[in-house]
Write the structure tokens for this entry.
Amino acid sequence: MKYRTIITFKNYFEEFLNKQTQKVKDKIIWTFLLIEEVEKVPETYLKHLVGTDGLYEIRVQIGSDIFRIFCFFDEGKLVVLANGFQKKSRKTSKQEITKALRIKEDYYDGKK
């Protein structure tokens, strides 16, 4: 049973995904399937970003490489992917958060 559906918006996420190795792509796809099919997704894989208005990060780790994909919900069960990046420091880049919030705003403006 599917609890959520993941969609992309424009080409932000695809640009990120196309730059990754096949191993990274496979782990990202596996994580997406988990998010769609598990009722309560562990924070290890999907976490709300504190201090943001409804922005979440999908967390993917392969060995010591850490990747983050920002997303947000629409209509409760629809997960919209924004941008992704490889995390290289402990703090999540403000620049990436700002970009994700712009994408979210663009998405909702287009729905009006």
Observations:
- The mean pLDDT is 95.
- The beta strands are 5-8, 46-48, 56-62, 65-74, 78-87.
- The longest helix spans residues 94-111.
